[in-house]
Model the fold of this input.
Amino acid sequence: MELIRTILAEDDTRLQEAFRELALHEEGIDLLGVASDGEQAVQLAMQFEPQVILMDIQMPRLNGIEATRRIKRALPSVHIVIWTIFGDDQHVFEAIKAGAVGYLLKDSPAQEIVEGIRAAARGESLLHPAVARRVLQEFQRMRTAVERAPDLMYELTAREMEVLRLIAEGKRNKEIAAQLFLTEKTVKNYTSSILFKLQVNSRTEAALKAVREGLI
Done:
């Protein structure tokens, strides 16, 4: 199994040790370093260029959302999963807007945290069920509030629109590939093109923007 290069950003020493223990016994996770504040998280990201960062929100010097924003600007290929006690709408959507691909609460079972890291490494998203409900509710709110702009100029192809609709439904790359009779690599290429055309950093943000603009 290929190792997932991972960094933890968390200021609570007890949780640091708990995650070190989890990573030590979990096959496939290579813990490169632990940051105790947001500034250090950015520094470690630049130093190691990990695949995945598990990011707390409330940290000294620089909060996790701003750290996420800075890392994604410098290293767009790094996948960041928010790991926090905060499940309110403001933090959820700020994190998604900053470029996070996953959002887990600290009361999540260990296996769910591991799966969130693995999903992020695959370029997919995993949201805590309570968070997922809020995202879906926001989808519905925007769907009823927005009117399609007649001169919308997004240049998504018909196939990209199909992929985007399935992303918005929470489908993973493997599921999208099976449904559209494509390879997973082709789905990843379509997803990269969609993110570029919509000028967003993550699959979740692409789906939110598509609904907001009336594309789907």
User: Anything to note?
Assistant: The mean pLDDT is 83. The longest helix spans residues 129-145. The first strand starts at residue 4 and ends at 9. The radius of gyration is 17 Å.
